[in-house]
Structure formats: C-alpha cells, structure tokens
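ok so for the tutorial part 2 we go from a plain amino acid sequence to predicted structure tokens. step 1 is just haveing the sequence, like this:
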Amino acid sequence: MSTRLTDWRLCTIKNLFLKYRYDIILILLIASVAIGALLIFAFNKATDDLSASIYVRDTLIQQVNLSEETNERHFDIQGINGTLTISVKHNAIAVIESNCPHQDCVNEGYVTETNHPIICAYNGVYIIVVSSNSINDIEVGR
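step 2 — the prediction. this is what the tokens look like for a chain of 142 residues:
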C-alpha cells in the first residue's frame, strides 16, 4: 500500500512540473537576472577618483576632488535659508552643521558612494558624488 501511495505522489509532482514547467523556468530566469543585477551593483562601486558637485538650487557652487583630499577640512556653503558646514576628507564628504529643522542632511554622515546624494531641502543644497570612471553623465535640471 505504501508503494502505491508513493507512486501516486510522484505522479502528482511529475504532472505538476509538467503542467507548470514554463512558469517555473520563467521564475528561475527572473530570479537569476535579479541576483546578477544585485551582484553587479554590489561589486561595482567606483571609489577611486571621486569628486563632489555642490549645488544650490540648480546652480553649481563648488566642485571638490575627493580623491586628492589628504586631510579633513571644513568649509561653509551659503544656502537659501542659512549656512551649511561641509566636511571633506579622502573620498568622503558630509554636511556636519546646518540650520535646517530636521537635520536629515547632517544625519547622512560621510558619503563615499556615487549613488548616494546628500540633500538639504530646507536650504536648497544638494551634493552629488561622481566618479570619473562613471559611464553616465549627470545633468541637473528643473
């Protein structure tokens, strides 16, 4: 009796795979593409030759070559509603002081990746880190 029960289950599983084989192939294909994309983004971090562009609204105020910075230094940027203090060190940039109410820009800490901007909406200031090795050019518009 147990052999017949096992045979019945195998036939059901076999029929299930035969009935949904294209769905299973599609799911495996989508999962493999997603895993491949995650691996590409995880290991494709360009940390050499970084520079930061600092904008107030749509106007480029200053560009800083982060790869040439050897010591930590601070400077001020005048935003719409006040002054922000920017800290720069080798391949990293941060807003360390701002008069904005929520302090989200200060809480971001040091940014070392090209896909992580610092935005202070209260002062209209945003900082974009770019790499000279990047393929896409960034265009700032309204």
